[in-house]
Design a protein that fits this description.
about 475 residues, 5-stranded antiparallel beta sheet
Length: about 475
């Protein structure tokens, strides 16, 4: 029998539950020159005590503390039983540091949550971002003890912990200072999940306390209130009459006390009715430039190439920035024009060249760009020279520049024909026309006329016909050739 797929509501609840059990914190600000205790709360200090009592090398701990103070720890991700971050060391690529901690069993969670529900003061402290001593040091121990923290790192140092894992531990102490729910997440439950569970337990606890008088001896039980004739119920016992709203502090089946105020409420129709709402705040302005992705650690054991992931992340940031900037541009008359994507769909070859040209906007060939060109050439069946030439064409004019690289066309009479006269009038070399090209092969110079009515300069070694895009496109052929000759 095929299982029924989960409903949309169940799937949404599952996504929320997974999101609640994963929290990501941006890099904490550096604290250069800070002295004294690293943690400010007693529970943050207890976290560091668990680290320091099992460390095999105090010098590594001191270096880890310095790394943490100087801001070497990047984004931190906390999930049940696991804390992960990249830590920048002495090498260009950061290392992946990890701390593992045992999660609590369901039976331990039941005992812990029952103790919180039974003492409202403990929940009050947690909501105020404080960890009560009685809760942390109760039968279920929340804070780690000696040997509970298991450090790991991708660096070659086999110290336990190495300075990178120690730096991560020191920064986690600062997270715990600000929010003890981070510790509860490490132990296995997210904040929203815990608060929902505590709300159910508090409701059950209140119901038990409310039902308690119903089981008292009859001699101590207050007399039942009977409705008068004006209530339309004759002299019937309230317990046998039609059901009515039950006030606070009254158990089901028991009548309300005489003179008790009516239970307040809002009809569902009124609660769900449309009503005026304040306008949304204006959107934040787009940043001046797209952000740069974080450097990833070496990926020898990963199923993907970290360099390729950084490459795609940089491109995604640039595309998002361009789309946001285009959407924020005001149109004529104070309105906004329809927003079209700045990145239309491209064939794989053109999109690969766009990625290489925009993600690495350098003019020279570094070792990283050479490796990139080799990978692109292997993936597309081209040569590295083809890739490099195409990247230069894209930087020169985008899709139009790339199209002019390999595809000549015959422009109509007009600007192309007048260009030769303009070049002669400016006392510049006479160029030989062919299709949309004006060429002086002996000098190794060429202008290509684009569909956008701009002139794209090219150069080659004289007599080789090995043409390369050179310099920016120009709507004026005289300006384009003058710039080319000045090189």
């Amino acid at each position: 029998m095929t299982p029924r797929p989960a409903s949309g509501r169940a799937a949404a609840a599952d996504r929320l539950a997974r999101a609640d059990r994963s929290r990501t914190f941006p890099p904490l600000p550096a604290r250069p020159g800070a002295r004294g205790l690293f943690a400010e709360s007693w529970w943050g200090s207890a976290w560091l005590d668990a680290l320091e009592t099992t460390a095999l090398d105090s010098a590594r701990l001191a270096r880890g503390r310095t790394y943490a103070r100087d801001g070497h720890v990047d984004t931190i991700n906390v999930t049940p039983g696991r804390i992960v971050a990249t830590v920048r060391g002495s090498r260009p690529r950061p290392y992946s540091a990890e701390i593992r901690l045992r999660t609590l069993a369901d039976q331990e969670w039941d005992g812990l949550l029952d103790s919180i529900a039974a003492d409202p003061g403990r929940l009050t402290d947690l909501l105020a971002k404080k960890l009560p001593h009685a809760l942390a040091e109760g039968e279920v121990r929340l804070l780690p003890g000696p040997g509970d923290l298991v450090p790991r790192c991708s660096c070659p140092d086999h110290g336990r912990p190495c300075k990178h894992a120690a730096a991560l531990c020191f920064q986690v102490a600062r997270l715990l200072d600000a929010d003890p729910f981070v510790l509860l997440l490490m132990r296995g439950r997210g904040e929203r999940e815990l608060l929902d569970d505590l709300s159910r337990r508090n409701t059950a606890h209140t119901a038990r306390e409310t039902h308690a008088p119903a089981h008292a001896p009859a001699s101590t039980r207050p007399p039942r209130h009977r409705r008068g004739p004006e209530a339309g119920g004759g002299a019937r016992d309230a317990s046998t009459g039609p059901s009515a709203p039950v006030g606070p502090g009254v158990a089901p089946g028991e009548p309300e006390a005489p003179g008790a105020p009516p239970v307040g409420g809002v009809p569902a129709k009124a609660a769900l009715a449309d009503r005026p709402r304040p306008p949304l705040p204006p959107p934040l302005p787009a940043p001046a430039r797209p952000g740069s992705p974080l450097a990833l650690p070496d990926g020898d054991t990963l199923p993907f190439d970290p360099v390729a992931l950084e490459f795609l992340a940089a491109d995604a940031a640039a595309r998002a920035h361009a789309c946001v900037s285009a959407a924020a541009s005001p149109g004529h008359g104070g309105g906004r024009p329809p927003v079209h994507s700045p990145f239309p769909a491209l064939p794989p070859w053109e999109d690969a060249i766009r990625l290489a040209a925009t993600a690495h906007p350098t003019a020279g060939l570094t070792s990283a760009t050479r490796a990139l060109y080799r990978d692109l050439a292997a993936a597309t069946g081209r040569t590295t020279t083809d890739v490099a030439r195409s990247v230069a064409a894209w930087r020169q004019g985008g899709p139009e520049g790339l199209a002019l690289l390999d595809t000549p066309w015959d422009p109509p009479a007009g600007d192309f024909d007048r260009a030769r006269s303009a070049l002669l009038a400016a006392d510049l070399p006479a160029l030989r026309p062919r299709h949309n090209h004006l060429t002086d092969a002996d000098r190794g110079i060429q202008l290509r006329f684009g569909h956008d009515n701009r002139w794209y300069p090219y150069e080659s070694e004289p007599g080789t016909e090995d043409w390369w895009p050179t310099g920016p496109a120009d709507p004026d052929p005289v300006g384009a050739l003058t710039t080319l000759l000045a090189r």
